[in-house]
Design brief:
Number of domains: 1
CATH topology: Na+/H+ antiporter like fold
Protein name: AEC family transporter
InterPro entries: Mem_transp_PIN-like
Structural class: mainly alpha
Shape: globular
Keywords: Cell membrane, Membrane, Transmembrane, Transmembrane helix, Transport
Subcellular location: Membrane
CATH architecture: Up-down Bundle
Number of strands: 2
Strand order of the largest sheet: 1-2
CATH class: Mainly Alpha
GO cellular component, one term: membrane
Strand content: under 5%
Helix content: over 70%
Length: about 350
């Protein structure tokens, strides 16, 4: 393995460099516009609602409007299984990362904050920008396990209450979840469905596809969804930048616990994910391709999940610390996710995955 060539190939890949620069520059633009008062305090919340209720569901559904093959299906199943396993592992491991804190409540909150990141709002737009529909599909499948534990385990631990009907409803009737399950089911069953002839928009070749493959059979419907899906990344990044512009960096930076948490969330958690995936790959227990690997590591390097922050604030569980941790982990993710992308690219170029 020629390390110099691998590094050169990675740092001259314009797709990767362009995606990283787009993410950083648009987040910076949102930050500047908020600081200048062009974006008001409601902008970030409003854009978040648009992205979560419209753009991401369209993105998730469209990602499944592709042909199915045995290899991708197997990797998708492995992603689904690993997406459940990794949260069980983190639920068990993350409390050990904070044993040096004597305050039991703080340990619990930090453990939950470390386990659950902003995979939907922060992770999927980045994955989509770099790895396209295949990455988006893997990210949507991976998020199934995330949603299950976020609205059950995280809620129960943070509230001290039993699971309620409201959270069950949130778990299954969330627009992104509905779009994901619908798309996943349609993607899996397409070999058994009635076929219609059409022109593949990518290859321009004549193909026979399942009647509901709207990318081929109803481009007039697929195109509006594509436009809505394409809004997810820039709107999410502007909202992230705007949100960062509302918080005092000085106040957040004084909190040593938040710095330690940020390191755990954006460095250690993705590292644990990488090690587990590497072991499963070399043992051939649950192999995944490079896009799946990259998708899951990026998802696990995301900052504090907004839902968990809401739990902490709503149930008065270390609310100030959570706000500071959310801010610093967002900054940390902006720095570390590009680094993880480069590391993954080097791993791929070296033929390790």
């Amino acid at each position: 393995m020629n390390l110099a060539k691998v590094l050169q190939k990675t740092f001259t890949n314009m797709d990767i460099i362009s995606a990283i620069s787009s993410t950083l520059l648009i987040i910076l633009l949102g930050f500047i516009l908020r600081k200048k008062g062009i974006f008001d305090g409601k902008f970030g919340k409003m854009m978040t609602k648009v992205v979560l209720s419209v753009s991401l569901p369209a993105l998730a559904f469209n990602s499944f409007m592709v042909p199915i093959d045995e290899k991708t299906l197997q990797h998708g199943i492995n992603v689904l299984i690993f997406g459940i396993i990794i949260y069980i592992v983190l639920i068990l491991v993350t409390p050990l990362l904070y044993l040096n804190y004597s305050d039991r409540d703080k340990r619990t909150v930090l453990s939950v904050l470390t386990t659950f990141g902003s995979t939907t709002f922060f992770g999927i737009p980045i994955v989509s920008a770099i790895y396209g529909p295949k990455g988006t599909m893997y990210a949507s499948i991976f998020n199934i396990g995330y949603r299950i534990f976020l609205y059950s385990y995280a809620y129960i631990v943070m509230s001290g209450l039993k699971m309620d009907k409201k959270n069950v409803k949130q778990m299954f009737l969330n627009p992104v979840v509905l779009a994901t399950f619908l798309g996943l089911i349609l993607w899996i069953i397409q070999p058994y469905m009635p076929k219609i002839g059409g022109i593949d928009p990518t290859t321009k070749a004549a193909v026979n596809v399942a009647f509901y493959r709207i990318d081929v059979t109803a481009p007039w419907l697929f195109k509006p969804l594509t436009y809505l899906a394409s809004l997810s990344s820039p709107l999410a990044w502007l909202a992230i930048g705007s949100t960062l512009g509302e918080i005092s960096i000085k106040d957040a930076a004084r909190n040593k616990t938040s710095w330690y948490y940020t390191f755990m969330k954006t460095v250690i958690v993705p590292l644990i994910t990488f090690v587990l995936l590497f072991v499963l790959k070399i043992t051939n227990i649950m192999p995944v391709d490079l896009v799946a690997l990259a998708t899951m590591i990026i998802m696990m390097a995301t900052p504090t999940a907004a839902v968990v922050s809401s739990y902490a604030i709503g149930f008065d569980r270390e609310a100030v610390m959570t706000s500071n941790a959310s801010f610093l982990s967002t900054l940390g993710a902006v720095i570390m996710i590009p680094i993880w992308i480069v590391i993954i690219s080097i791993v791929g170029s070296a033929g390790i995955f």
